[in-house]
Specification:
Blueprint lengths: L2 H53 L1 H8 L10 H6 L3 E5 L7 E6 L4 H7 L10 E7 L13 E7 L8 H11 E12 L7 H11 L2 H5 L10 H5 L5 E8 L7 H6 L2 E8 L1
Parallel strand pairs: 1-2, 1-4, 2-3, 4-5
Antiparallel strand pairs: 5-7, 6-7
């Protein structure tokens, strides 16, 4: 045997077992990766996002005050003193709700889940499994108000979602939003948001969420007649502070159809 052959033999003998173990571990992890992602995302929704919802209660109350002055375009609902509200990413309540969410188990959660009592006062008109980028089941000008809360970061197409929101709103209808936005340019956090989003690390673990998306420009270009917004920093105790640090900056606003 040549010296090269001996070297290859010694290399295989020395590292063959280690390489085999490494390959087995990689295969095992790849097979379990899908279930692991589901568990991480479920813990994220039932943990951090629920805590965020609690921290945002004062901001939601401020934003949703304008709902008290919304008059439905539907004669029947108007006579009942109700409005028809569409929410993309179910995180709030209303009088007559059309819900759009990517969660396949959403109907079970709202109707039969452990916390279904919280939605007992809501008339659930329709539940649509999706992300808001295609709302063809909803007629044009059908709803009086649309709400998104920390949802635009994970839609398939931000532009299509906003176009659909504009389409389904009745004339004079309100689109209310509270969405997290990136940190200022030239900061370490902004760089980290870009890296985690563009490498798909963060979206793959947390339901498609992109930390580097700023929806304000798109909302401005969606054809609304009037838009007002303000920026605030969400602060408070959460069990996973790293998540909050990466998505603490928010925009709160109303766009009129």
């Amino acid at each position: 045997m040549s010296n090269n052959d001996l070297w290859i033999r010694d290399l295989i003998t020395s590292y063959g077992l280690l390489s085999s173990v490494f390959i087995v571990v990689v295969i095992s992890i790849s097979r379990k990766w899908s279930n692991l992602k589901k568990r991480i995302y479920k813990a994220y929704l039932t943990g951090f996002e629920m805590e965020c919802a609690e921290l945002m209660i004062p901001y939601k109350k401020l934003l949703f005050k304008s709902l008290q002055h919304v008059v439905s375009r539907d004669k029947v609902l108007r006579s009942m003193g109700c409005i028809r509200l569409l929410e993309i990413g179910i995180k709030t309540d209303s009088t007559r709700l059309i819900g759009v969410d990517r969660n396949l188990r959403l109907p079970e959660y709202l109707i039969k889940g452990n916390r279904s009592w919280q939605f007992s006062h809501i008339i659930i008109e329709r539940l649509i499994v999706g992300d808001g980028s295609c709302l063809r089941e909803i007629p044009t000008g059908y709803v009086d108000a649309v709400v998104t809360t920390r949802s635009l970061c994970s839609v398939i197409s931000l532009q299509s979602t906003l176009q659909e929101i504009h389409r389904v709103l009745a004339p004079g209808g309100q689109y209310m939003f509270i969405e997290h936005i990136p940190e200022n340019e030239e900061t370490l956090l902004r760089w980290l948001q870009k890296i985690l989003s563009q490498t798909k690390i963060w979206p793959s673990l947390f339901g498609g969420c992109h930390l580097d998306i700023d929806p304000v420009v798109n909302i401005k270009n969606a054809g609304f007649n009037h838009i007002t917004w303000d920026i605030f920093t969400l602060d408070g105790y959460v069990s996973h502070p790293f998540h909050l640090i990466l998505s603490r900056q928010h925009v709160l606003g109303v766009a009129i159809r």
